[in-house]
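ok new one. same drill as before - structure tokens go in, u give me an amino acid for every spot. 125 of them this time. try not to just spam alanines like last time pls lmao
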């Protein structure tokens, strides 16, 4: 329960920090500096492809974190030495890692489906 309160507090703090940026973005002028982006050497790749690349990188980083969690759970299991409490803790870490992996793979499948259909639907003839 304490962890849930901490997560809620961190979320509220981040929300409080981001909210002024959101309201500032709503009042930006219409030009948004699009001409500057092309003259400054930024990529001219389609925004949908850029978003898909960002999603892929984020999910890859989350996958690495899940692997580390599963390895940590395996380390706890191997060093338990018959201690049932530590063995239960290790099983929880491994199970949590597997659940995280399933969630990440599901998110990747959904994001891939949405982005590919978005590109197909909005591509010109």
């Amino acid at each position: 329960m304490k962890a849930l309160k901490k997560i809620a507090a961190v979320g509220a703090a981040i929300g409080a920090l981001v909210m002024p940026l959101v309201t500032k973005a709503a009042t930006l002028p219409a030009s948004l500096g699009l001409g500057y982006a092309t003259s400054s050497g930024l990529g001219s790749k389609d925004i949908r492809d850029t978003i898909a690349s960002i999603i892929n990188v984020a999910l890859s980083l989350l996958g690495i974190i899940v692997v580390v969690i599963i390895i940590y759970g395996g380390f706890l299991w191997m060093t338990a030495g018959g201690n049932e409490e530590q063995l239960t803790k290790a099983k929880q870490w491994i199970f949590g890692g597997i659940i995280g992996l399933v969630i990440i793979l599901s998110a990747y499948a959904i994001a891939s489906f949405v982005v590919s259909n978005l590109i197909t639907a909005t591509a010109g003839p």
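Residues 67 and 97 are 7 Å apart (CA to CA). and btw The two ends are 54 Å apart (CA to CA).
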